[in-house]
Structures are given as C-alpha cells and as structure tokens.
Amino acid sequence: MEILGTYNMQGPIVIVGSGISAISLATEIRANNSAVEIVIISDDREAPYDRPQLSKEYLRDGENSSFRLNLERAPDVEWLRGQRAESLNTDAKRITLSNGRSVAYGALVLATGAEAKRLPNLVGSGVPITTLRTLEDASFIREHLRPGKKLVIVGGGVIGLEVAATARAVGADVTLVEALPRVLNRCAPFKLASFIADYHANRGVAFHFDRLSKNAAASSLLLDNGRQLHADLIVVGIGVVANDALAKNAGIACDDGIFVDRYGRTTCPDVYAVGDVTRQLNPVSDRFERIETWSNAQNQALTLGRALAGGPVLPYSDIPWYWSDQYDLQIQVAGIPAGDEEVFRGRFADAQFSIIQLRKGKIVGVASVNRSREFNIFKRLIASDRLLDASILSDESINIREYVKWI
Ligand SMILES: Cc1cc2nc3c(=O)[nH]c(=O)nc-3n(C[C@H](O)[C@H](O)[C@H](O)COP(=O)(O)OP(=O)(O)OC[C@H]3O[C@@H](n4cnc5c(N)ncnc54)[C@H](O)[C@@H]3O)c2cc1C
Asked: How far from chain centre, in Å, is Cα 1?
C-alpha cells in the first residue's frame, strides 16, 4: 500500500455538495481534527438526506422513513445552503457562489454528484413526468402513486426496477419500457437480470423490451412500434450524468466525471473530488470509470477525510459494490458482471442464490439474492489473488467459509 505521507493543510477545507460523500467527508475530518475550519456549500435548500431510501422506504412511507443524514457527528461546520458554486479560480484558490460571494479555500473537495438524464421529447405532453434523483422528485412520485393509477417507467436499471417494486406494493399498475432486450444491462449478470425481470412480471409488472419511447400525448406514452401506453405518471430512469461543469470550466481533467487518482486528487493541486462525480480506476476492470454506488461515495470520502484531517494519505481501492431492495429480494452485486466462467449456487425457486464470475480462476464478480453472508465472503475474495475451483464453489454441500480458509 502506497502511503503519501501527510498533508499540511493551510486555510479552510471547502466541500461542494451535501450528499453522502460530502457528509461522510465532513464527519471524518471532524472526527480526526477538531480545529480545522470546514465550509459546506450546497445548492440544495433541503437538510441533507440519503438517496437510496427515495426509491424504497420514502416512496412508500414518506416522512415516516429515516432518510435524513446524521449531521451531529459533523459539528462546527459553516453551512452555505441553497447556494450554487458557480465558478472556480484555482490560481486564487477561491470559489464564487450564485449569490456573488467568493469563498477562499485551502483544500477544495468537489462532491457534486450526478443528475438524472432526461428525455426532452416526453416533456410538455400533459402527463406528469419526472426523473428520480432528489427528495422533490420522490415527493412528486409519491403524490401520484395510488392503487390503480397507471405508472409507466422508462428504463430497466436499478432505479426503474426499485420504483416498479415500490409502486406495485402500493397497488399501482406498472408498465416498464426498456430499449434493450433485458434489464440491468450495465450492472448485473444476465441470469440475475432474467430472474429479476421474471420476479417483477410475476408480480404484475408489464414489460416492453427492445422499445423506445417516442413521445407522450395527453394521457399516454407512444412507443416506436406505434403502441400507446396509458399513463397517469411517467418516471424516467435512464442513467445519470456527472455534475462536473465546475471542474471542467476551471481546466481540470474531466470526461463525464472528474478524473481522480487513488488519493482523490484531481489534476489541479489542492482540489479533490469524491463520490458519483468522480471517474476513478476500478480495481477490478482496471479502467477509469464512474462508480455510482452509495458505498463508493461513502468510503472514498472517508479515506480522503482522514488524510485531509492530518492522518496518513492512504490510497482508496475498495471493490465496487451495490445493493438493491425489490419486493422481498435483497440483491447485492460486487465487482464486474463478466468473467470467462460462471458458477451458480442455490436455487432460483427459493429466491436464494449467488452467481459467481471467474476469470482465469480468480473471482471478478459476485451477485447474490438473499444470501448476504455468502456474498460478503465472495466480495472479499475479489480483492484477493486466490485461485478457486469452480466445481467446489458450485457444490452447496461444501462450507465455503471453511474451503476459503484452506486454499
Ligand atoms: C433513488 C436512488 C436510489 C439509490 N439506491 C441505491 C442503492 O440501493 N444502493 C446503492 O449502492 N446506491 C444507490 N443509489 C446511488 C447512491 O445514492 C449515490 O451513489 C450517492 O447518493 C452518491 O452520493 P454523492 O454524495 O456522490 O452525490 P449526490 O448524492 O448526488 O450529492 C451531490 C450534491 O451536490 C449538490 N451540487 C451539485 N452541484 C453543485 C454546485 N455547483 N454547487 C452546490 N451544490 C452542488 C447536489 O445538489 C447534491 O446535493 C441510489 C440513488 C438514487 C437517486
């Protein structure tokens, strides 16, 4: 592990953003350094909240769910809420806000996240339409989710599927349109994707695969095959783009995401970035990617936070992973969904299984449904260089924990 020594910070640490990465960073800095000045700039007027609940508990239970982030462990922070960071002068080390105020920094951390891609061709039709990224979006969807209401979801990614599951739980009619022949194209192995699509179909979700949405009329969505889908609400879940304009306009290297190294450093001195906005080296694929997961946003921020607080400057190289809750399925996926060999453990019929991807005998990915303990063992193995025997991994009579101890 390469340790870069320690930072000797002069001046305040300014954080832009108020999502999980920004709050984890502020909390970790404060836990390790009670003296350093911390300023948080956020364009959101809302008190900070956690996004994963927005498609799950909050959509179902509203204010009764626990979706607010805990700020108690980040005391003595100057909050500039409802202020957009508009421009960055890296020579003067100052950031200018939407109200004209200029803020000086010793270290600047961009935690600006991402925003949902939209479909402009669907707007203005009269059917209520939204994406789902913010608390406001989730509240809008909640207002329209009623038993018997017709919800059309465009996009079969994690967000679209979670909204579908929650909407079915409250009794709405759900139709999902996907441009490709399968769901979860980017982030799950084929077998898991097929299982999840069947699970939804068996619970009443109607799928239209290989179809594009063309436009929306007063009360329906028109598909490219001429089919009209009646809709009381359309939710678009077709991915996100990084909020990297601030960095890009300041000459910092970006490509739909701010390039950072394993220490969270951008290409500009004293400017760092964490969370969804970053493009970083994925230790499994060995490519620079955006890793849009909660655990990445939190852990990348914690590692940088310790360093900015004066602790050792350590590299961050966690194995990417995410979870998703749909109906009674706890889905967990780590690594990459593509190897040269695939091992299946468990039974689809019990909704309890793991799919393990191997490349040249090493685990590069695991996807589990309702098998959390096993998932954690396989996730740890992705980080190791151990060679594993596929026939043993697939044998349910062998205790995996014991097997792993002996190889
Ligand atoms: C509905 C939903 C469900 C999810 N569920 C899961 C899940 O189950 N599992 C999982 O692993 N991941 C999930 N995720 C992904 C996870 O929530 C994100 O990876 C995580 O929130 C990223 O955090 P972040 O702090 O990097 O960015 P964000 O949460 O996007 O926060 C960025 C903040 O910066 C602010 N900002 C941007 N630009 C500026 C500016 N110029 N000036 C001031 N402020 C600015 C934004 O308003 C925003 O508040 C989900 C995401 C969504 C939307």
From this structure: 26
Q: Whose C-alpha lies nearest to ligand 1, atom 39?
A: 112
Rounded to an integer, what distance in angstroms lies between the CA atom of residue 39 and that of residue 37? 7
Of all protein residues, the one whose alpha carbon is nearest to atom 13 of ligand 1 is 52
Q: Quick one: pLDDT band at residue 5, thresholds 50, 70, 90? A: confident
Give 246-280 pLDDT, tens digit per residue: 999 999 999 999 999 999 999 999 999 999 999 99
For the CA of 98, the nearest atom of ligand 1:
42
Q: 51: CA distance to ligand 1 center in Å?
A: 6
Q: How many CA atoms lie within 13 A of 235 on its CB side?
A: 32
**Per-residue DSSP letter, 356:** E
Which residue matches tokens 């299982």?
A: 195
pLDDT confidence of residue 407: 67
Please tell me the distance from the alpha carbon of residue 246 to that of residue 256, in angstroms, as a whole number.
12
Ligand 1 geometric centre to CA of 243 (Å): 10
Q: Give me ligand 1 centre to Cα 244, in Å.
A: 13
Q: Which helix (H) or strand (E) holds 202?
A: helix 190-202
